[in-house]
Structures are given as C-alpha cells and as structure tokens.
Amino acid sequence: MKPAPTLSAAFLESAGQSLPKALLELRKQRGTALVDMPLPTRKTENWKYSSKYLKLTDEMASTLPSQGKALTGQEVPGYRIVFLNGVIQPEASEFPKADGIRVASFRDLDDQEAAELADQLDNTLDDKAVQLARLNAARFEDGLLIRLKPDAVLDQPLFVIHEVTADASGSAFPRIFVDAGRHSQATLVEEYRSSGSEPVMVNTVTEFKLADGAKITNVRLTMEGENVQHIGATGVRQQRNARFESHTVGFGGPLRRHDLHVRLEGEGGECKLNGVVVTQGKQHFDNHTTIEHVAAHCNSEETYRNIAADQSHAVFNGRIHIHQDAQKSNADMNNKNLLLSNGAEIDTKPELEIYADDVKCAHGATIGQLDEISLFYLVSRGIARREANVLLTMAFINELVEQIPLETVRETAHTRLNQFFDQTFQEV
C-alpha cells in the first residue's frame, strides 16, 4: 500500500524572528507538532473533492519577501491595513486611533500583550477539521491584533488588504485576531489580491472572539490570480446575545479553500453567513462551513450560491450541529448552484446533526442550469442572448451581493463579476 503523503520538512524550516518571544515560542510548538503531518487525500472526508488540487512543492515552502513597496494605492471608505506577503506595511496603512480600540501588528506588541495573545490564538478552529490552519500557526511572520474594549465602536470599516507578489515561488501566512468586548461593534473587510505569475500559496487564518452583545460584520473577497493557491480559515466564538455577520465573495483559482467555523456558545447568539462563488476554466473553489449551536435560544441563517462554467469545479459543504443543551435553536441553511456548461461540476453536501428535541431546523440544496424558457422570453423581447445570459446569471447571485453593507465592496465585486461574464458568455 502506498504510504500517505506527509508535509515536506521544507515547510517547517525556521522562519523570521521579528515576533515577540511568546509568539515565537507558540510558533515553535506548532511547528514541532506538524512533523510528519499527513496531507489530505481523497480519503480525507472533508478534502475528498479538493485534495487533488493541493500542490505543496518544496519551492513553495520558502517565505515570500516582505520588503518592497506595497502595490495598493486605492482609497477606501475607512481605515486601511496593508499586508505584503503576510507582513504588515505600516507606511501604506492607516491605523484607527480611538479610545477603547487597539489595532496593532503582532510585531509591535509588548511582552505582556504577546503572552496574552499567545494564549488566545488557535482556540476557535477544530484542528482535525481544519488541518492546514495549523501550518499558518507554525509559519506566520506577522499578524493583526484588533482589540475592542467594552462598548467601543469602530466608527469606520477597517479594510485589510492582503497583497501577494508572486515574482518567485513561495508562501505567505497572514493572520488576524479580533477580540470584541461586551457590546462593542466593528466591520472588517478582507481583500486578497496578487501580482506576478509564479506558483505561490497563501495560507490565512482569521479568528473572532465575541463577548456578550458584541456585533461584528466580516466581508471577505478572494481575488488572487490564477497562480495562487489560497487556503483560508475563519473561526468564530460568540457569547450571549452576540451577532456575527459574514459576507464572502470568492473567485476560483488552481485551489481556493475556505473553512468557516462558528460556535454559538451563549444564549441569544445570532449568526448570518452569506457566500457567493464563481469559477471558470479549470478553476476550483471549496467552501466548508460549520455552525455549532452550543447554547439555547440561538439563531443561524446561512445562504451560499455557486456558479461554475467551462471545466471548473465548485464545492459546498455546510454543517449545522445542534448540541444537546441547545434547545429552542433556530437554524436555516440554503445552497443553490448554477451550472453554465456541461463540463462544469458542483458538489454540495448540506448536513444537519441534531441532539436537542425542541428546535426548528431546515436545509436545502439545488443544482440546475439557466432556464431556457426565461432566456427565450428575454431574447424575444429584443435582448441579445449574451445579455440575457448575464441578466439571468447575475439575478441568481445579486440578492446576496446587494446584502454586502458597503457600497465600495459591492462595486469591487460587480467589477470582477462583469469580468467573469465577459469571459464566460460570448456574443452569438
């Protein structure tokens, strides 16, 4: 029997030493634990559709250089933090400065802050389910700490721009930790971009800790180039009456993977998860979500929609776990999928695991193609067939795009979606 592949030792070589001592020690511990770590295969249940797209070469193990000028010069309607190859660029960033709000690079933390942070990292994700998030913990060069004291409100959205320069093969490991105090509020936007054409990997982890009554909105745009493997994980832990809202828009690549894990640990907690994915060519995108209702009287609402064209492949695996003590839970999951060609493939797997007897839960999934009757109707009214295709396809996802609470982000998403339509639909 052929032995299972393991993580190359090249990925565990010593990284930069610019972090505080407590974080360096944490990184060393995580790296030691990864020795001979099995890589996912098609027999790994939560990677069975994606393992064949994972290409971790020794050349890719080296850390991409963080020196150089950040590419982003765009104005954003809020504060801006720029990561270049996983390291924050202060000169290109605008940090919030307000009472009760601490936003800082991991590299700039004092010893006490770093020790406190080291105790908090890696407490929101299931190591067994999100295997490659552990690689981020062993390799991160920098990170962003966002700490909101009780009742603090971030007055403008915080845009975190992740830039990767793929002039040579390598990897970047950006990380974010958000600690939201009681009744605090903030909006965080993550944008992932790239330049260059060499094969690289971006391995990201974002963690949210929401105290009682905290409200966090997270928007995530995955827009790197065709040479970038993106493996991301987002972990959320919510306490009493906390609310978490997630909006993700993803564009396919050689491998795109996002794991989103939410734990509703306090009564009255709420989460809303919206996701849109489009793939074309031979691209691949895999969304895995888990919502755990741990406490009673919590509500969750999840809606994901995928569009696949050409020979591309999209995956959605959504799991809702209702724990024994989570009585009066209300959970709803909906996944709709649109195939634009006979060669495209979409796999969907909604899951409900219920151990409480007084709950209201529903889930559903559909896969279909553009309706020929609707196309005929539009064409018969004088609309070109290409425009009719675009109108119907956009209508399929526009409901979710329009729920993104920031106009600038909606415009960015629409621009990229229009590029997708231009490449997918040709005039006939």
Overview in brief:
The chain is α/β, with parallel strands linked by helices. Helix content is 17%, strand content 39%.
What does this structure look like?
The protein has 428 residues and is of the alpha/beta class. It has helices spanning 21-33, 111-120, 133-139, 372-380, 385-401, 407-424; strands at 79-84, 87-88, 101-105, 144-148, 158-166, 170-172, 175-180, 185-196, 200-210, 215-222, 228-238, 243-251, 255-264, 270-279, 284-293, 299-308, 313-322, 330-339, 345-354, 360-369. The chain has a ten-stranded mixed β-sheet, covered by helices on one side. Strands 3, 4, 6, 7, 9, 11, 13, 15, 17 and 19 form a ten-stranded mixed β-sheet that branches. Strand 1 and strand 2 form a beta hairpin.
Please name the defining characteristics of this protein.
ten-stranded mixed β-sheet, Fe-S_cluster_assembly_SufBD, SUF_FeS_clus_asmbl_SufBD_core, 428 residues, Fe-S cluster assembly protein SufD, 6 helices, globular, alpha/beta
Oligomer state equals: single chain
Note the total helix count.
6
Mean pLDDT: 94
How many domain regions? 2
* Global morphology: globular
User: Order of strands side by side in the largest beta sheet?
Assistant: 2-1-5-8-10-12-14-16-18-20
Secondary-structure element order, N to C? HEEEHHEEEEEEEEEEEEEEEEEHHH
Q: Biggest sheet: strands, sense, closure?
A: 10 strands, mixed
Low-confidence stretches: none
Strand content: 35-45%
GO biological process, one term: iron-sulfur cluster assembly
Pfam families: SUFBD_core
Domain SUF system FeS cluster assembly SufBD core: 168-396
InterPro entries: Fe-S_cluster_assembly_SufBD (IPR055346), SUF_FeS_clus_asmbl_SufBD_core (IPR000825), SUF_FeS_clus_asmbl_SufBD_sf (IPR037284), SUF_FeS_clus_asmbl_SufD (IPR011542)
